[in-house]
Prior knowledge:
The protein is α/β, with parallel strands linked by helices. The chain folds into five domains: 2-10 and 206-313, Cobalt-precorrin-4 Transmethylase, domain 1, CATH 3.40.1010.20; 102-203, 3-Layer(aba) Sandwich (Cobalt-precorrin-4 Transmethylase, domain 1); 367-522, CATH 2.40.50.140; 531-606, CATH 2.40.50.140; 608-679, CATH 2.40.50.140. α8 (205-220) packs parallel to α9 (233-245) and α10 (258-273) crosses α11. The protein is built from 16 helices and 32 strands. The radius of gyration is 43 Å and the shape is elongated.
Amino acid sequence: MKYKIIVDKYAGFCFGVSRAIALAESCLSETNHGSIYTYGNIIHNARVVNSLREKGVISIEHEDFTKLTSSDTVVIRSHGVPAEIFRELSEIGVNIVDGTCPFVKKIHNIVSEYSSLGYEIIIFGDKRHAEIIGIVGNCQNTSHIYADFNEFLDKTDNFKYFFQKKLAFISQTTYNIIDWEETTSKINAHSSDFTDLKVFNTICDATKNRQNGAKKLSEICDITVVVGDNSSSNTRKLYDICAGNSPGSAYITDGFDLTNFRRRASELISVLSRQPDTPGKTLTVGITAGASAPREVIEEVIKAMDDSIKDVMQGTEVQKTEEVQDTGAADNTADESFESMLNASLNRRVHKGNRVEGIITGFHNNEVTVDIGTKQTGFVPLEDFAEIPDEDPKNSVKIGSSVELIVTQVNDAEGWVTLSKSKADARSGYERLEKALNNDEILDAVITGVVKGGVVATIKGVRVFIPASHSGIRTAKGDENAENALNALFKQNVRIKIIELDEKRNKAVGSIREAMNAERGAAKDKFWESAEVGKTYTGVVRSTTAYGAFVDLGGVDGMIHLSELSWDKVTHPSQVVKVGDSVDVTIKALDREKNRVSLSYKDPNGDPFTNFTANYEVGMDVPVKVVSIASFGAFAEIIPGVDGLIHVSQFSGNALKKDDEVTARITEIDADRKRISLSLRAIDVPVDENVPYVIPEETE
């Protein structure tokens, strides 16, 4: 009887595991750091963890953080960690090397983004697994963990808990692909029951390939052996798949102790040898392995199986495949291409001047550490992240966020790269400013400095000089207050128009004044399109004169005449308004040719003449107070805001003086012209006809 050993081509280390181990080992060559630690076991492989420990890489847990110092290095395990762990390590100041699998990091980004948008995150996987703990720790909203779809139904009373909620579904990267396909099919069938539903396929490509390969392998082999640790989630799932498909039996090595496995292998071969000897039949043993199984362990398992076959079969012909065979697992070119590109990125070289994208992983002294997808650790000066002067740059750094950088120095020997965010910002900034200049665009900016002759703003990393004459502040030549006026702009948000740009000379000039003029011009056109008499606007008082106040209506200035400021007597606008006040005004008149707008600030419901006509009529005797004297008579106040004229012919024979209080009769009311005539003679009092009328001297 012939025997054949077939090994799945996808068995063994996945990309994420290989990357994490490579990062940990690269730290050993660095001499500028203290002790090297991994947060938790870097992978579920005791053999690899022990090997790293022997080399000086020690596994620690959260409770061990108290012994860390700023000179130490902590490598984040491939399964990822909660965002809080990054924050704590950053506060300690250690050098953080992020070994999180890129596929896991992708999930962190998904749950962080969607939970911040109000989605509740539904996670399928093992709630005790390190990967799930890390995913939950990156959610900014409520998250729920379920082992499978049946548990989801049981605990949510057939979805009722989640009605009217926004949901985002994801799975552990090593989740059983068959179960996930069934789960997503059932979820999508009920999509109409949810307010908003997002389903993300987050099973990693290596897992898909390994599970598909294990399924096909177990279907054609008499015995299937899964190499891996029983504590490994992806290894257990491979075993479940093989056990459900293998015509014979499936076994798991449960660790990497080959002494025990050799004893186990003999038992497996004994099972094979007891099968009926069919002429021409070749019995097959399939071997696959979890993502944490190194290639050398898989080869040792193959050798152990081969030796056991020889021992048990005592010379019976054995046909062994020494090379990894293709088991016909589904080939996903796009997935393999993505993984190969990621793998290639780790081995690619970067050079001075390259523009790269990095992921912020933490802080080290006065530098920010970044992952740029290579084996080297990237360092960026913390000061590069200072967006506003005098503020802590750390306020602008968000761990896990993406940032564009320029390579400034490469040290392959020691495995580090220095980078600059400010130079990358400047390069991108000049591209942005050039576009704004060509398109006559106005940009938002913050004034970051006051210098001789003007102010400075930083836009997209580019220093833009704004001459004093373009600051938008009107000052006379030699004005001592001009410098103070410029200082007032410091840290202010402004709108700027680029008027000159030369990247080679590192020169950019902007104008607040031209931006203001352009925006006022646009606002002016918009105003005249809809302006009409009687329409009400909200404006800002820009200036006052002896005869009125000027109000900025947004692109157009209108004037409130002194007489339109109040129903009461006003001698100067400052009695009613002051510069900077926000006022509601009504248009009284428009002159489009001269761009003149006449305004009223009077309350239309507060007209005192209306109040007068409602309560007074001709023939009534009323107490009045003389407010002014003229050659033709005296003006007397009847009620505040309403005066009447006592003609000289209506005096009772005595001269009147300002502030005299007398009783007069209303003899005429002209409502259209808002004029009132009063008389003293009309009141029934004795009059000495021999006393001539006295024409008083004019007063104000």
